[in-house]
Amino acid sequence: MAIGAHIDALQTPVLCCDAAGIIQHANPAFARWLQVGQRRLLNQPVRALEMQDRRLTDTLVEFKAESPPVKLHRVAFAMPGLPLTRFADVLIAHTQDGFVVEAHPVDEFSTATSSEALSAAIAAAMKGLAHELRNPLAGIRGATQLLERRRDEVQDDTLLRLIQSEVDRLTHMLDRLISPHAETPHSALNMHAILDRVQRLAETDAGWAVKINRDFDPSLPDIEGDADRLTQAVWNLVRNAIEAGSSQVILRTRAEHGTRIADVQHALCLRLDIVDDGTGVPESLAEQVFLPLVTGRAEGSGLGLALAQQVAREHRGTVSYKSRPGHTVFTLTLPYAPSDGDDE
């Protein structure tokens, strides 16, 4: 394939396939990444390299010549007969002769636990915690109300309002855990307003120890969701970054096109990256990090990331991550509702 000569110098692993999904060329970066020789990859069907599911193969079958590039999250690759498995975000685009497949290696992991089992485990763990927290929350709110009545007339009451709103939010969350009822209907909300609120919480919690930077895409439209639940999820992710010993946390929003979450293709998603320079996720916890009660800190509860993943799933989204010491990125991906005429 003519395109093959142009990709060999790239450090990004790339495959060139014909229209039937048969590998015609693999650049040296892909061979090194999978730890096989280039020749062993030639004339292999892509489906032979794809482990666990067939999202990549299915996408190639459904991909039309006029389709825009498609991104798939966390595809597992392995050479038949070899135990090594690699994970990558994959970008698929049409060429004149077939397809080009870019693999962007990631260190993110997902749990094999089903959504139902995960939700049940979180609910059981949180119900006991909810009972323990109700009385302190009531006391905090009562003390805050007394403080507000006695404050100086010229005193800034921003912090008091923040405390009261957070106590109300936590009380509502605990009520839902103890006495489950119908979910709050989703409504249009501005994700940046949620991030403003989380930033105030983070600055109140961490003081000057951590610098919170913002990198927002102001063109993002409103998204349908539950503001309290999303605030809870984002705050858990940011607090996790703070507790990892970070000196800086970046909140970054972007639009992402053609993203597949689980087995559903979405035309447009909101991507929130929470980037920190902390210690990173321990390798020993990489496969279990989203499970409840799993934590790498002696003082940790092991509930924050599990709850963030649950909230993401309530909004048809997902939380993923990639991590190394000094640079960790947790990504919350939320799909926008399809507009009229769009197909998911």
Structural write-up:
With 344 residues, the chain is an alpha+beta fold. The chain folds into two domains: 4-105, PAS domain (Beta-Lactamase, 2-Layer Sandwich); 115-335, Heat Shock Protein 90 (2-Layer Sandwich). The protein is 37% helix and 26% strand. Strands 1, 2, 3, 4, 5, 6, 8, 10, 11, 12 and 13 form an eleven-stranded mixed β-sheet that branches. A hairpin with a 3-residue loop joins strand 5 (86-94) and strand 6. Helix 6 crosses helix 10 (304-314) and helix 9 (227-243) packs antiparallel against helix 10 (304-314). The longest helix is centred in the middle third of the chain and has 36 residues, at 115-150. The model is unreliable at 108-114 and 296-301 (pLDDT under 50).
Q: Which architecture of the largest domain does the CATH hierarchy give at level 2?
A: 2-Layer Sandwich
- Note the total helix count: 10
Given as residue ranges, the uncertain stretches (5+ residues, pLDDT < 50) are 108-114, 296-301
Structural class: alpha+beta
CATH homologous superfamily classification of the largest domain: Histidine kinase-like ATPase, C-terminal domain
Proportion of β residues?
A: 25-35%
Q: First CA to last CA: what distance?
A: 33 Å
| Mass-distribution shape | elongated
Proportion in helices: 25-40%
Here the CATH topology of the largest domain equals Heat Shock Protein 90
